[in-house]
Amino acid sequence: MALKALMVDVDGVIVTHADPKGWSANLEADLGLSPERLQEAFFAPHFGDIVHGRARLHDRLGLVLAQIAPHLTSQALADYWFEQDGHLDHDLLDQLAVVRARGIQLHLATVQEHERADYLWTKMGLKDRFDAIHYAAALGHAKPAPEFYREIERRTGFAPSELFFIDDKAANVEAAQACGWAAAVWTGEDRLADLMARAGF
What we know:
The protein is α/β, with parallel strands linked by helices. The chain is built from ten helices and five strands.
């Protein structure tokens, strides 16, 4: 069966960072908030609910910031986060454009909450480069749960054999393969065309 769609992860694939600490590398210097404190008070207890669509980002973040960083609004922190977390790999995007020109659809398959998913899709312009975005808060499931992949199949109508997936995490790739998708770990060291060729596409 022919390849119909290429599913692409975002963080670590489309979005990359020169600093291994990622978007929060300069958070304390820039906004006066310790990344460790934010992780402890917000991400660890709340982000699971948010990224699965059971809670909204600003509802939980606003409550936390009122206690640990009252000088910041949730919108100010989100604006900073999304901007700092918006370094696109243009070389990969160029490689993906070649694939799309062959008539293969490009879809994002990513673990995001609603606000950042919208930022990526609209403000960063990924809607002009991809045919659809599938993200955890909208799907109700996150990688590597098999339900994440099955819900994408249900929504798109594609069979597992019609899909190829790249992700920077081996566990997510292995979960996709267990669902019958062709998949490869993206490290940036191989060209996309070579990974696809090895998968028979």
